[in-house]
């Protein structure tokens, strides 16, 4: 299995509204030093966008908001090298294991962490982070689960992301704040690159 290497511990998320933005966005992420991207299955473009970006050298692309086995299969067939879900799906977990693709299931409770660990997953999305107690809750989970690392997403922003990244058990922070819509909508690629570099 190819493990996702998350440069600068930032995991950008995008929901594409067209396919024209795929190549320029990939290029921005590569040049800005965070060559990794989660493409949300929240638009009809997700699978095609994964296909386009997975053919570009120097960037790792995966699928987000993977809710069903069908989406997991579609994402993997399109070239996704990792899958992320907002919660824990046994179906998606089994497909990821069978296809040897990395999976970051979502959790918030100790029971969910235990379930995900039973399947062998050790890096878990913590979602929706800010609504479920943020860093304080993750700190509490770290006690009984010292080998688990977390990717908090949901409500992570410019004001709070650094406090998460101070902790060793935070594998990365994720979310839409890394690719703000204002840059995407205006296709301000140079502005986006400077913004990401400044994070
Ligand atoms: C996700 O799917 O990870 C979240 O929707 C990200 O939440 P955010 O938009 O608050 O970053």
TrEMBL record:
One of its GO terms (molecular function) is 2-dehydro-3-deoxy-phosphogluconate aldolase activity. Pathway: Carbohydrate acid metabolism. CDD domains: KDPG_aldolase. InterPro entries: Aldlse_KDPG_KHG (IPR000887), Aldolase_TIM (IPR013785), KDPG/KHG_AS_2 (IPR031338). The keyword Chloroplast does not apply. Its EC number is 4.1.2.14, 4.1.3.16. It comes from the Bacteria. Coiled coil: none annotated. Transmembrane segments: none annotated. Signal peptide: none annotated. Keywords: Carbohydrate metabolism, Lyase. Pfam families: Aldolase. Homotrimer. Belongs to the KHG/KDPG aldolase family. This is Bifunctional 4-hydroxy-2-oxoglutarate aldolase/2-dehydro-3-deoxy-phosphogluconate aldolase. It comes from Stecheria intestinalis. The lineage of its organism: Bacteria, Bacillati, Bacillota, Erysipelotrichia, Erysipelotrichales.
């Amino acid at each position: 299995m190819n493990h996702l290497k998350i440069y600068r511990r930032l995991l950008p998320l995008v929901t594409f509204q067209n396919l024209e933005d795929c190549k320029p966005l990939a290029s921005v992420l590569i040049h800005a030093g965070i060559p990794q991207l989660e493409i949300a299955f929240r638009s009809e473009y997700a699978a095609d966008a994964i296909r386009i970006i997975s053919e570009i050298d120097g960037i790792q692309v995966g699928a987000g908001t993977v809710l069903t086995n069908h989406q997991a299969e579609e994402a993997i067939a399109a070239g996704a090298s990792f899958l992320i879900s907002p919660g824990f799906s046994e179906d998606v977990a089994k497909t990821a294991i069978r296809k040897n693709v990395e999976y970051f299931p979502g959790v918030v409770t100790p029971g969910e962490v235990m379930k995900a660990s039973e399947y062998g997953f050790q890096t878990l999305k913590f979602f929706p982070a800010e609504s479920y107690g943020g860093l304080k809750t993750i700190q509490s989970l770290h006690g009984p689960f010292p080998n688990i690392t977390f990717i908090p997403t949901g409500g992570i922003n410019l004001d709070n992301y650094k406090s998460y990244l101070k902790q060793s058990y935070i594998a990365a922070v994720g979310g839409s704040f890394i690719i703000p819509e204002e840059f995407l909508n205006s296709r301000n690629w140079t502005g986006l690159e400077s913004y990401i570099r400044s994070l």
